[in-house]
Amino acid sequence: MSDETTTGLSHRKLLMWVFLGSDCMFFASLIGTYLIYKGSGVLHPGPADVFDIPTTSVSTFVLLMSSMSMVFAYAYLVRDDIKAFRIWMFSTMIMGSTFLGFQVFEFSEFYFHDDLSPQTNLFGTTFYALTGTHGLHVTIGVIWLGIIFYSSLFRNTVTSKTNLDLDLAALYWHFVDIVWIVIFAVVYLFGTFTGFPSS
Amino acid sequence: MTTIPFKLPFNIKLYRPVSPTGVWGWLTTVDHKKIGVLYGVTAFIMFLTGGIEAMLIRTQLIAPELKIIAPEVYNQLFTMHATTMIFLAIMPLSAAFFNFIIPLQIGARDVAFPRLNAFSYWAFLAGALIMKSSWFLGGSPNAGWFGYAPITSATFNPGNGIDFWIIGLQVLGVASLAASFNFIVTIINMRAPGMTMMRLPLFTWMTFITAILLILAFPVITVALIELMLDRTFDFNFFNTKAGANPILWQHLFWIFGHPEVYILILPAMGIVSEVLPTFSRKPIFGYPAMVLAASFIAFMGWLVWSHHMFTTGLGPIANSVFTLTTMLIAVPTGVKMFNWLGTMWGGDIDFKTPTLFCVGFMSMFLIGGISGVMHSFSASDYQQQDTYFIVAHIHYVLFGGSIFGIFAGIYYWFPKITGRMYDEKLGKLNFWIMFIGQNLTFFPMHWVGMQGMPRRIFTYDSGMGWAFWNGFETIAAYAIAFGVLIFVINMIKSWNGGKKAGDDPWDGRTLEWSIPSPPPVYNFRDIPIVKSLDDFWRTKQNSSNSDTKVKSKTKVTDIHLPQPSYWPLLVAVGLTIAGFGIIYNLLFTGIGIGIMLITVCAWSFEPVNEPDSH
């Protein structure tokens, strides 16, 4: 087996892109479901009753910053600056975990405080399914980064030569971030938007 | 059996098999040819079970007011018949060809991800077993192959049948997605030097387009099935009308998947026909770029027509008109293909071997199915045809007369390459004529009873309706199809064991798979070929005298390093099966299954692809 490919791209990188294309349709279907049912629920609470935009804005900001940190981690790995790579890698994981912490806090707040469970109404069903799926993607991402971090720390196997391993994880990470931008806009911002004030 | 060790984190040592033989060799194989054979044989057995279900359905309908089969069992039979034929027979039979033929056609030694490829097969087998086991575990799904909500909800359908359907389809979806990722990467990235995209054989092109359709369509059905599963298992409200849910959502999600799916079923067969016809007409394919463009256009338009399955749900005149127009439009590229096949045969030196006959059968049957398809594209008249036997006639003309005929053409065409032996031509022709006549006598009268208003999916009918004669006729003709398939099975078994030796290139073929021995050696190509034009192999044969076509190879066989066998794909699929059954019976097993999958995927990712001393 030669390592040369027709396009020069590695098989794994191409696979990642194809997978992300497929995953787009996955999220598109869930977001579509949410939008179709938006406003057609017959029971409270609805989006405007439960969302706390400032809190979610903070967690959104943290997740977006984690993407930047990921870029730094990759840039330092390519230059073989392993120490800086580990620092940025660690910060990416921490920010990802922070986002997940916010989501757990938010879910428990909705569940215990606002009486919104997936079984309560259409909003609960579609909201938890969509954001839960996204949360699952972030969790998988954090575990993935964790494995790479572990390999770097204890086995010293992550170097600029193996940067593709990190490149793939980074692609996935940025994709999950982009999906969150859509979810934050469509679910949270549109959900609480009550129209422009009349002049 | 010899094994060699490899290391995991935490100093865990595992062993991998080296050149296992016998059953063990099949279980751990990552060779695309062996996987192709596994796919083909398994899918054909599934095709036979689906056929038995069809025969039971037809037997119940042979005369009015029969009670051979109870209504509930009848519902399960038609649901399983369609699900089996679509997901367990036609798709994996096409996948069998993808596996066996694609690497050979593009001049590669294997697919891009050999272990992922093995996993696709084992996951397909797992899905098939989950789906079929429902017959023995308290009843099969009974809501039709498109499982409209809310008939599938726990309220109206309390048994386990629908759960088997959901989990079976999910697992099959995983298998198809993994296979499609693999083939897209393989076709883009593993082509032999000089094999540009516009020099790809048309079967490879159709596979490529099918795989793209598949990776975009399957996530949609996956989401729909997850929603249904959450509804049934955890009381979510996706299709709960009491909470304000809209059952049309299911139909939209299903058909956004479902319409690209019909092209997933037919495009591989079109690809096979586009290989067989030029070979047996001794002419290059007519209008190669037009064929590629037409297929691409079909793939694109396939996304814009889904609502023609839903004309009667009341989408309103504007939506119905738009979908009428897009549906009529999609017939145009199909027509282009049809004319190009005719153009290929026109003036050719046509050799009517069995594969040619099946291709001509494909074209004529698919034409009839296509014409009735254009008839229901017109939303106003579709109100009359919706849910009648007219639709049943249409779908069987395109899927049986179309896809299955194409696949049979492919089986006969590549049988010498796959087994190294020739099939029996006389039995092959007999098989074709019986199936061809049987298919027309079975399905053509369905147009008439459909037009007379016979609804599909009824377990019996009143003797006063005037449908009795044609139903009896159809059933007898259906038995003829079964007889035709029996002849096929006899031909295959007989020829595989004792057929005469085929030689490398029995058809004077055009594409690269005919340039290597039959059956191909494990490494496929001793030297990776260099491609200079479309149909390069054929042109090479034309331009050189017979003696010097074989150039002495300089590559030593021992220098070719192939991916090594692995247990992990099989074990991951075992975990997937346990997790699947867990959702139906007890979530504890889902946890165990997911645990097994995590461990095995981890071991898989640390296992080196080749032997450590190979580079």
Compact summary:
The complex is a heterodimer of chains A (about 200) and B (about 625). Chain A is mostly helical and about 200 residues long. Chain A contains six helices and no strands.
General description of the model:
The complex is a heterodimer of chains A (199) and B (615). Chain A has 199 residues and is mainly alpha-helical. Chain A has one domain: Cytochrome c oxidase, subunit III, four-helix bundle (Four Helix Bundle (Hemerythrin (Met), subunit A), Up-down Bundle), CATH 1.20.120.80. Chain A has 6 helices and no strands. Chain A is elongated, with a radius of gyration of 20 Å. Chain B is an all-alpha fold. Chain B contains 17 helices and 2 strands. Chain B has a two-stranded antiparallel ribbon with strand order 1-2. In chain B, α4 (114-133) packs antiparallel against α5 (161-189) and α4 (114-133) runs parallel beside α16. Chain B is globular. The relative contact order of chain B is 0.11. At the A-B interface, α1 and α5 of A face α5, α6 and α7 of B.
Largest sheet of chain A: none
Count every beta strand of chain B, where a strand is a DSSP E run of 2 or more residues. 2
State the order of secondary-structure elements of chain A, H for helix, E for strand: HHHHHH
Class by SSE composition of chain B: mainly alpha
Which regions of chain A are unreliable across 5 or more consecutive residues at pLDDT < 50?
none
Query: How many domains would you count in the coordinates of chain B?
Result: 1
CATH superfamily of chain B: Cytochrome c oxidase-like, subunit I domain
- The CATH topology annotation of chain B reads as Cytochrome C Oxidase, Chain A
